[in-house]
């Protein structure tokens, strides 16, 4: 009762806030990130207000590209926090789960370790993509993923031996010892594996010096807190924590670094500037009394340093960071890009695109407007801002990149994230995060939402059409929302990935290809015909492949209209017994029986199942059994394909759940995962369709749950849970939750799928691509007694005339059987009590199936084909 009352209160608050702000919201200027930092801030109120702003705009017109990008960033922020906030909408620390899992100790010192299943000899294997997918005709194709930082050691004798390091917001630090030809990860065993900046102590060619890395993701702003500053003395091969760390109750965000020498370093933090003079052992606050400012981007020249904060302030020091003064007071909104040219003159670019030249030789220092604002400038509230000044050349990077050779008076779009034939400039992935000098002349580096690129502007015409070399192929940092597999083959080499910022990847015929989606949020593969594939974009956008090989040759596919807007991240699933039927979560749960043949002229979503939960956040389907979660907390269950619905109750002590998994063989058995950080309330089981629940949380650390998955049609109970720190499992003999497998980075897992043919699990991670592991029962600590092949005979195979014959040996008096398809969908079940038996399969589609038999306390699985 308490949980339901709390949920009702939350919904009432949201409704009141939505109504009050809807009438006055005229533009998207409410700073939701800043609002979230205030004492007693409420997630539900903030989300309601911001959504009201966007809805107000939509009632009058179509959103512009810049407004759509702002909407995406807001919804990503909302998605990050929705499972973390408590029942009253209060924000926890973003590092809470890492400490609870033992990756941070009581004082938040970082422990380098990869917790793993000690009962399993299995190892996670990354299956990619490990290089950029084929453009597939895409003029501005997706790439492997976002990077924030870059550092390079120049080999004086051979450029092919240059050492490169990059840092990703959720993918850690990567190193190349061959100038970018190959890469390997170097930070996977730490919590969070988010990197804001990397700087070295030496600028002398051939001298590597000492490296420092600041952690978190300052550009994204307060969604991934820092675990401090790290140090490497072996050119990035290994990293140790310095004395700068953050306690659980004082989590901060670190920004850029200034490294003077091996011992002297400045780092920007949420509340001020920290400095060390002893190689990171101790740190001293050098800009005390600063709160709610969010210092981040910095640049230095000699003893002069300039730093910006999250709220349009600008501060400077002329004595290597010992003392500071405000140059621009923190009274506005937005962030600032900072650079210094090779003569020591500082320049900034504000969130509106205005260039300013700084003069630090006068007291107080001044900032003078210069030049004009580029026509297409869009910093997305400071998420992406870079600036370079060299000689007469300015390069600015926001969504796209513009160049000027006359002091910023006229601009040309040189770096175009939306490049197509006839467009200005050259293609470089949009959203720029850092950039700087590379070599003599006009050569530069740039890290953006697609990776690392080198830019060369030397030579005639190179300002308007620079040479761009992508350098981070092999840096596997893709942020995936969902994955799909083709389980029809035991060698499964056909996949789909729906990715943040980088559209969709589809592996077809052994090759990854690009698929258009903007932000891909959901996907599916027809398990009876893997050439039929689906990729969903935000708010309900959906395409289907058109070619015999999938999306190869047609990256846009056929657009399938939606019935109504869905949530930003919306769920899609094919029926587990008939792949021509699909379910989609829009303003309610919908069913389609024509999705595989619809020509796009009308919506295939013709059946609104009227579950009553509103916009759908998640659902699980097993045959006619459906369990649905609404965006505002409604929970419903149906055992007849949505013809009627019953309420699902919340487990005791839980204020919200975010995933369900149904046992197809016993559909009244449902599993769920709980939202938030409530120790001991993580996973639950119901045997009465969600009326009552049993707590199944023993052994699970108090970390974020993302998805529960029940392994169908097994003799015992096998469960898996995707979390913010890998995958956990429990089995009939290992009933306390245990970390699954070795070699998986400490990364958020967003999605899981099981291939029942090859007994493998596949996962999509948010920052480290797609992985697989063997989950045969005996690898999970369970030794099952197995029937001998001679005791059970099935024929013919392939099946003829829709009849499968099963012969039992004389030693078997009775055998229970279940027939299921390659996605775990149950086709038939029963009992054999004769030596010779047959099963009628006339209503089953063509494909691969598995019959599981249990007799005399033993079990056996046999595959067969229906053609």
Automatic annotation (TrEMBL):
The keyword GTP-binding does not apply. SUPFAM superfamilies: Oligoxyloglucan reducing end-specific cellobiohydrolase. Residues 1-25 form the signal peptide. Residues 794-866 form the Secretion system C-terminal sorting domain. It holds the Pfam family Por_Secre_tail. Keywords: Signal. NCBIfam families: Por_Secre_tail. This is Putative secreted protein (Por secretion system target). It comes from Olleya aquimaris. The lineage of its organism: Bacteria, Pseudomonadati, Bacteroidota, Flavobacteriia, Flavobacteriales.
């Amino acid at each position: 009762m308490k949980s339901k009352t709390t949920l009702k209160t939350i919904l009432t608050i949201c409704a009141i806030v939505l109504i009050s702000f809807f009438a006055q919201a005229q533009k998207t200027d409410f700073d939701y990130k800043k609002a979230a930092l205030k004492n007693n801030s409420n997630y539900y109120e903030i989300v309601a207000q911001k959504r009201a702003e966007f809805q107000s705009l939509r009632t009058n017109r179509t959103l512009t590209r810049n407004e759509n990008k702002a909407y995406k960033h807001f919804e990503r922020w909302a998605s990050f926090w929705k499972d973390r906030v408590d029942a009253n909408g209060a924000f926890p620390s973003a590092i809470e789960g890492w400490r609870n899992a033992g990756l941070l100790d009581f004082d938040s010192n970082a422990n380098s370790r990869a917790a793993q299943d000690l009962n399993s000899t299995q190892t996670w294997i990354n299956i990619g993509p490990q290089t950029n997918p084929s453009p597939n005709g895409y003029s501005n194709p997706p790439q492997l993923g976002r990077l924030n930082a870059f550092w390079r050691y120049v080999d004086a004798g051979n450029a092919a031996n240059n050492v490169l390091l990059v840092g990703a917001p959720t993918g850690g630090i990567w190193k190349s010892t061959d100038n970018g030809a190959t890469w390997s990860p170097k930070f996977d065993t730490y919590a969070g594996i988010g990197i804001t900046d990397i700087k070295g102590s030496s600028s002398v060619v051939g001298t590597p010096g000492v490296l420092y890395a600041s952690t978190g993701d300052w550009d994204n702003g307060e969604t991934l807190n820092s675990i401090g500053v790290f140090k490497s003395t072996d050119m990035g091969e290994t990293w140790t924590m310095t004395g700068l760390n953050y306690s659980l109750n004082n989590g901060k965000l670190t920004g850029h670094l200034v490294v003077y020498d091996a011992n002297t370093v400045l780092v920007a933090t949420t509340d001020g500037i920290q400095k060390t003079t002893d190689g990171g052992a101790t740190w001293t606050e050098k800009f005390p009394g600063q709160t709610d400012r969010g210092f981040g981007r910095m640049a230095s020249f000699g003893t002069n340093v300039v730093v910006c904060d999250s709220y349009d302030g600008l501060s400077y020091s002329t004595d290597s960071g010992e003392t500071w003064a405000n140059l621009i007071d923190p009274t506005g909104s937005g962030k600032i890009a900072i650079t210094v040219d090779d003569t020591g003159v500082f320049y900034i670019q504000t969130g509106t695109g205005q260039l300013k030249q700084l003069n630090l030789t006068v007291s107080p220092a001044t900032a003078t407007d210069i030049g004009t604002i580029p026509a297409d400038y869009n910093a997305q509230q400071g998420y992406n801002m870079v600036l370079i000044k060299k000689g007469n050349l300015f390069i600015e990077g926001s969504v796209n990149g513009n160049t000027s050779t006359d002091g910023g008076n006229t601009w040309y779009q040189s770096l175009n994230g939306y490049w197509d034939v006839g467009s200005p400039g050259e293609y470089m992935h949009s959203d720029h995060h850092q950039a700087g000098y590379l070599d003599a002349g006009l050569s530069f580096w740039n890290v953006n939402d697609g990776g690392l690129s080198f830019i060369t502007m030397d030579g005639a015409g190179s300002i308007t059409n620079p040479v761009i070399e992508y350098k981070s192929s092999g840096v596997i940092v893709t942020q995936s929302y969902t994955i799909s597999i083709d389980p029809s083959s035991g060698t499964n080499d056909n996949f789909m990935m729906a990715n943040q910022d980088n559209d969709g990847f589809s592996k077809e015929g052994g090759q990854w290809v690009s698929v258009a989606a903007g932000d891909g949020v959901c996907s599916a593969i027809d398990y009876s015909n893997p050439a039929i594939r689906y990729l969903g974009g935000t708010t309900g956008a959906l395409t289907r492949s058109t070619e015999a090989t999938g999306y190869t040759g047609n990256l846009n596919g056929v657009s399938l209209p939606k019935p109504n807007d869905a949530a930003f991240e919306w769920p899609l699933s094919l029926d587990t017994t008939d792949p021509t039927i699909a379910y989609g979560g829009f303003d309610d749960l919908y069913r389609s029986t024509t999705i595989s043949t619809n020509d796009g002229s009308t919506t295939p979503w013709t059946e609104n199942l009227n579950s009553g939960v509103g916009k759908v956040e998640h659902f699980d389907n097993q045959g006619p059994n459906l369990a649905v979660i609404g965006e505002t907390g409604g929970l419903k269950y149906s055992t007849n394909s949505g013809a009627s619905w019953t309420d699902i109750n919340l487990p005791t002590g839980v204020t919200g759940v975010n995933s369900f998994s149904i046992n197809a063989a016993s559909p009244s058995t449902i599993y769920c995962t709980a939202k938030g950080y409530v120790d001991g309330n993580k996973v639950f089981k119901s045997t009465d369709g969600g009326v009552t629940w049993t707590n199944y949380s023993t052994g699970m650390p108090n970390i974020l749950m993302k998805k529960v998955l029940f392994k169908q049609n097994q003799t015992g109970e096998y469960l898996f849970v995707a979390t913010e720190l890998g995958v956990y499992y429990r089995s009939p003999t290992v009933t306390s939750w245990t970390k699954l497998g070795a070699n998986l980075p400490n990364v958020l897992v967003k999605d899981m799928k099981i291939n029942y043919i090859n007994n493998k699990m596949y996962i999509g991670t948010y920052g480290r691509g797609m992985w697989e592991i063997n989950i045969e029962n005996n690898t999970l600590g369970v030794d099952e007694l197995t029937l001998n092949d001679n005791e059970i005979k099935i024929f013919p195979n392939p099946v003829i005339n829709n009849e499968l014959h099963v012969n039992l040996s004389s030693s078997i008096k009775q055998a229970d059987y279940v027939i299921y398809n390659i996605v775990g969908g149950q086709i038939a079940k029963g009992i054999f009590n004769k030596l010779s038996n047959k099963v009628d399969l006339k209503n089953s589609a063509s494909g691969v199936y598995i019959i599981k038999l249990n007799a005399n306390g033993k079990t056996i699985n046999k595959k067969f084909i229906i053609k």
